[in-house]
């Protein structure tokens, strides 16, 4: 359970959500942010035929995309309004078929620095009854960059 003190400020939540809403891929996949805390973001991807592979599991590309995005926004919660982040690299282990009613990707900052930030990535397959299974985990390195001038 999340406690109120763990919530990101309304300004940070708005900045993260506004940025997320500009991502064409996340919109195309139908992903949505469900939790924004300092250093931690959750993204949900509903299972539907458009995001599956030939065996009916959610495709590894979709699984990886929501994991990468959750980590990126987790890092961004810790930076000022003039900063953005870009993924430098990530590694993901696909531990089990991505099955369930939906996936929940969780990005958690492990170490933040002036330039590089490292995040843990976890993706769970969640059943209708709420049962959860870890289907992927990984690690990501992000670089902090200045927001481009408008």
Task: Give a written overview of the molecule.
The structure is a single chain. By secondary structure, this protein is α+β, with helices and mostly antiparallel strands. Helices cover 23% and strands 41% of the residues. The chain is built from three helices and six strands, in the order ααββαββββ. It has helices at residues 10-21, 24-29, 60-76; strands at residues 32-37, 40-46, 83-94, 102-112, 116-126, 132-146. A six-stranded antiparallel sheet has the order 1-2-4-5-6-3. A hairpin with a 2-residue loop joins β1 and β2. The N and C termini lie far apart (39 Å). The model has no long low-confidence stretch (mean pLDDT 95).
Q: What is the number of beta strands? A: 6
**How much is the radius of gyration in Å?**
15 Å
Which stretches are poorly predicted, pLDDT < 50 over at least 5 residues?
A: none
Total number of helices:
3
SSE inventory with pairings:
Layout: H1 10-21, H2 24-29, E1 32-37, E2 40-46, H3 60-76, E3 83-94, E4 102-112, E5 116-126, E6 132-146
Antiparallel strand pairs: 1-2, 2-4, 3-6, 4-5, 5-6
Keywords, separated by commas or semicolons:
alpha+beta, 23% helix, six-stranded antiparallel beta sheet, single chain, 150 residues
Provide a short characterization of the protein structure.
By secondary structure, the chain is an alpha+beta fold.
């Amino acid at each position: 359970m999340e406690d109120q003190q763990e919530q990101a400020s309304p300004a940070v939540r708005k900045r993260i959500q506004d940025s997320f809403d500009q991502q064409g891929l996340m919109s195309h996949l139908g992903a949505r942010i469900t939790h924004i805390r300092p250093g931690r973001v959750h993204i949900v991807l509903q299972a539907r035929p458009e995001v599956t592979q030939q065996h009916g599991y959610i495709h590894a590309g979709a699984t990886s995309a929501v994991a990468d995005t959750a980590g990126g926004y987790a890092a961004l919660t810790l930076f000022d309004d003039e900063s953005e982040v870009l993924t430098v690299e990530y590694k993901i282990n696909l531990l089990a078929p991505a099955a369930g009613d939906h996936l929940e990707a969780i990005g958690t900052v492990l170490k933040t620095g002036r330039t590089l930030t490292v995040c843990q990535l976890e993706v769970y397959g969640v059943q209708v009854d709420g049962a959860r299974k870890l289907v992927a985990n990984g690690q990501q390195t992000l670089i902090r960059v200045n927001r481009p001038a408008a």
